Amino acid sequence: MREDMFKVIVERPRLVHGNWLRGGRESGFRQFLASEDRPAKIGMQAGHQNRKWLNENLAPLRRFLASRVGRPWDKVRSELLNGIDQRNTVQQHILTHVDDYVLQQVRVLPRSELQPGKRGVVFQYRRDRYRDTSWHPVEDSRAPLFVDPRTGLLRETYAQAHRARRQRDAQSASAIEHAKTERTLDNGRVARCLDDVWYEVTIASIPGARLREWQKRRMTSDGRKQLERVWDVLEKRWLDRYDSDTYVTAKRQLNRKEIAKFHLRG
């Protein structure tokens, strides 16, 4: 391991805020920005608030640990500690991230105990640091590596591949459920079902930028009020980007022949 690993990981310029809601800088990042109260001249630091926060480049640490797969964990950890001064608080903080990447509290059980008739073994982990004393499969974790309790070797959890597979399965199930309430007809027309009644609808995008789930969780009631609202003629209620990305601008109820033609009852 390179001797200056702690410098590569910890010591680099910190990031600044960015506004995820309105494009421009986040409220509170800089005073007087786009304001009539802004002085004619202002210093580089005088107009800022909360300019920086901690930023870490953990990619070198991940690459180092991934390159040691198949080796004894005790030797890998010793190699890592040789380049870290644990008396230094900043350098010691690196070990916290090591625990995030490598599961060390792992047990192995016969698969038959969990799935009767199945062969093989199951690796489970727990993290007392997070006050979670229950055991979980290592492939359900966020960590890419774990320590095999039988051999002490560093192994891969393949958690990313398992998450991708679960995501594909969830998307397939979601598509099947979505087809029960919405179908694309010929010439790009869209049919949507509400209260077991099928309508041909015209769909448009709700004004504003798309909000991600973490943005919705962070949004305050005042921020919600700033979003533009539109009237959905099918659901008969006001919607904004917090509720949906699209809304129905026009609708027409389909007759029996159209429903049979497009197999909307199946």
Domain count: 2
Helix coverage percent of residues?
25-40%
Rough outline: flat
Average of per-residue pLDDT values: 82
- Helix count, per DSSP? 9
* N-to-C span: 61 Å
In the sheet with the most strands, the strands line up as 7-8-9-12
Count every beta strand, where a strand is a DSSP E run of 2 or more residues: 12
Low-confidence stretches: 17-29
Instruction: Report the β-strand fraction as a percent range.
Output: 15-25%
Order of helices and strands: HHHHEEHEEEEHEEEHHEEEH
Largest sheet: 4 strands, antiparallel
Structural class: alpha+beta
Instruction: Specify Rg, calculated over alpha carbons.
Output: 27 Å
Explain what you see.
- The protein contains nine helices and twelve strands.
- With 266 residues, the protein is an alpha+beta fold.
- The protein has two domains: 56-179, no CATH class; 182-261, no CATH class.
- A four-stranded antiparallel β-sheet has the order 7-8-9-12, with no helix packed on it. A three-stranded mixed β-sheet has the order 1-5-6. Strands 2-3-4 form a three-stranded antiparallel β-sheet.
- β10 (230-232) and β11 (237-239) form a beta hairpin.
- The termini are far apart.
- The model is unreliable at 17-29 (pLDDT under 50).
